[in-house]
Design brief:
15% strand, alpha+beta, seven-stranded mixed β-sheet, 9 strands, 310 residues, globular
Amino acid sequence: MLQNLWDDARAAAMTESEKLLYRSNLLGSDKRVTNYGGGNTSAKVMEKDPLTGQMVEVLWVKGSGGDIGSMKMDGFSTLYMDKLHALKGMYRGLAHEDEMVGYLPHCTFNLNPRAATIDTPLHAYVPRAHVDHVHSDAIIAIAASVNSRELTAEIFGDEIGWLPWKKPGFELGLWLEKLAVENPQMRGAVLESHGLFTWADDAKDCYLTTLEIINKAADWLEARSAGKPAFGGAARRRLPADAAPRGGGAADAGDPGPDLAGPPQGGPFRRQRGGAGICRIADAGAAGAAGHILPRPLPAHQDPPAGGGF
């Protein structure tokens, strides 16, 4: 069970950007929340424009590189929100995703040298002041299941949405915005084979929401397993550490968008951190992670039962 470590007395004297750093460090201090170097956090903050002296809305978001558990204030990119919204008029579709990353430096606030990441649109377009994105073990166990959409609805009801696999970038940011706008009761979303997004209008509320959703997923998994594998007897087998994973999720070309709930494509493999090779969660039917990994994968050392295998 993740514990609430937020100290109201300590946070009381902080600015909104300092609360973002505080929240980030708290979340990143527990590897059950996200893997080292994984995930990102953001806050939309009113700042004085150095040229005009006017107050403008600025997105503070974890920049390229670093770790939310140990980062400092210089680990955040800062971007004008009005310019980020203007990028929507520049977007020419999936075939031109890469050029959108090149536009991000033009949105920089106050000459901040920290480069913005490809995840920036996912934070910018959620219509809430604070957004957390983490790769929690418990959430990924659900997100990587072949029936992750159904499990998300079963566990969280209508307070947490679901989106099919999509490579992080501008299109996924628009999907997440659409989901949040059309479902104002939602407090976050599970991204298939990827992780968790949560949001709120207050820094502490966002932090508590992230803990609550992860704990709810962990409790469900524990209750579901009751001494047995949570997905009905998943067989795992050790494979050579240099074995290559198959596939990586549904192809982006011609992707119909979040309204289609087709089954994930690609092989159910995960490359493990720490030299444990690649494991397959056979009965869970995990979709390809396409660049995202389980922070601590399910055990890969067990031999399958007789007659089992891949």
